[in-house]
Write a structure and sequence with these properties.
The chain is mainly alpha-helical and 123 residues long. Helix content is 80%, strand content 0%. Helix 1 runs antiparallel to helix 3, helix 1 runs antiparallel to helix 5 and helix 4 runs antiparallel to helix 5. The longest helix is centred in the N-terminal third of the chain and has 30 residues. The radius of gyration is 15 Å and the shape is elongated.
Amino acid sequence: MREEQRRRSEARTGTLTFLAGVWLIAAPPLLDFQAAQQVFRPYWVSLVLAVVIMLAGMLRAVAPLDVPWLRTVNIGLAAALVASAFLVRADVSSVVQINQIVIGTMIALVSLVVAIDAGKWLG
């Protein structure tokens, strides 16, 4: 019973992570109209991270078995997303940077809570 509950929480976390990745891709043109005109050039780092976050979330959501190392990967990707908001100095909107920080922090916290609940990090 407990294992089934963990699997459901992994699937929910994966789904939330996937949706966060979708939002990270959609956010620059929605929050900063100039991004749509510049064809995402200033946001390429966060967009690549968003695609990888989406793929990791999809894997977590549909994996038939528990894949503990994906928790650590998600936390690392979320940390990279937050760091890129501070480190990548391009012509970017501060609203988009704040969005990256908030979404990255949420992904990391959700993944951390699930990892602590499961009691497993790498296997």
